[in-house]
Amino acid sequence: MEALTRKRKLRSFQPLWANTPDIRVSALHKIPDTSVDVLIVGAGISGALMALSLANRGLKVLVVDRRQPLHGSSLASTAMIQHEIDVPLHKLASMIGGEKARRVWQRSAQAVKTLSTLVDHLGIACRLERKHSLYLAGNDFGARALRTETDSRSKAGLAAAFLDPRQLRQRFALERTGAIESHISASANPAQLTAGLWRKAQEGGVSVVKDIEVTDMRSLEGSNVVATSKGGIIQATHVVFCTGYEFLDAVANQGHRIVSTWAFATRPHHPRPKWLTDYLVWEGSDPYLYFRSTPDGRIIVGGEDEDSATSFQDPVKLGAKSRTLRKKLSALLNIPIEEPDYQWAAAFGTTADGLPMIGAVPGFNKVYAAMGYGGNGITFSQIAAEILSAEILRHQDPDAELFAFR
């Protein structure tokens, strides 16, 4: 039986997070109630934040997933939780207009702050740490572009400082023509974060069912009738697709591209600059390099993205990409980078303007989706939860138009 969302392999090999403790989420084998207020499809971090935003609201919320909870893309995240999106502010302004671009970046910054506060408030043990970020000049955006970007961010009320080569050399021992330093970022263990969010949502009355495919859906008389792979029927007032890069066929189009990316993690307590404890680092290059450290002293490195929906599955490429990333990082930090402890690869979806698509699905009634997250999966998941829960609860999110399907 065909699924309603595009089924694809989401990651390959062994992500670091798969072996961390406290990531089990209990899930039912059967649907407990066939009539619900909200049906959420997808039990990754997007679905978790969505479910949590609706928990304890007097709504009957059901979540289904074709896998076990958090066993899709969430395990492959490097969890660099940034307000800086893939498309720089000054470039996005030329694409969608200055005011809209500023609102997007401001909303992204607020989402990082909100998520950090939420984790603290709920007491979720996921090694979340607030970080500074360092955006290095590269072959795609050089020093001149970064100066322009710094000015654009400052005008939007987003604190940013341009660092010249001398400052970079003195403070970080890095040889680049420039960089932007900013302070609204975070990092975490994404598996523990997602599992913790699910547990809190379940405490709030949300039901989670695993190994269920959604195969068909019809909007009838102010409600939605959803068919499942096990022959069941669910009636839901609202349906929310939080299926990440397994796009809903009704809205999958040429505006979305699936690309491949690679990552690795070193052993704990790997030699590294002292300053890296407090920073996320990425560069304005294509392909680009990004990296951070963990509380136990690993270096997590990623990048070398490739415009292919399947390359991440190739074990030969995994080795070659890891060697390239190691070589680049070693040259940048001027220290030897040891053989990885973990290596993995994944697919992710992008859009031309770097913005996700969040909102009502055309042609359906009270059916919503969030997709096309690019390199800001966790940040955009928080924004999606805010926008879509507001819609379901009959509030108006002032920024909904910025991320709507287009």
Summarize the amount of helix as a percent range.
25-40%
List how many beta strands DSSP finds.
Answer: 18
Structural class: alpha+beta
Query: How many helical elements?
Result: 9
Mean pLDDT: 91
Low-confidence stretches: 6-12
What is the highest CATH level, the class of the domain at 11-76 and 191-254 and 354-403? Alpha Beta
Please provide a written account of the structure.
With 406 residues, this protein is of the alpha+beta class. Among the domains are: 180 residues, 3-Layer(bba) Sandwich (FAD/NAD(P)-binding domain); 95 residues, Alpha-Beta Plaits (2-Layer Sandwich), CATH 3.30.70. 29% of the residues lie in helices and 27% in strands. The chain has nine helices and 18 strands. The strands form two sheets. Strands 1, 4, 5, 6, 7, 12, 13, 14, 15 and 16 form a ten-stranded mixed β-sheet that branches. Strands 2, 3, 8, 9, 10, 11, 17 and 18 form an eight-stranded mixed β-sheet that branches. α1 packs parallel to α6 and α1 runs parallel beside α8. The protein is globular and about 65 Å long. About 2% of the residues have low confidence.
Briefly, what is this?
The protein is α+β, with helices and mostly antiparallel strands and 406 residues long. Among the domains are: 11-76 and 191-254 and 354-403, FAD/NAD(P)-binding domain; 257-351, Alpha-Beta Plaits (2-Layer Sandwich), CATH 3.30.70.
Keywords:
406 residues, alpha+beta, FAD/NAD(P)-binding domain, Alpha-Beta Plaits, 8-stranded mixed β-sheet, 9 helices, 27% strand, globular
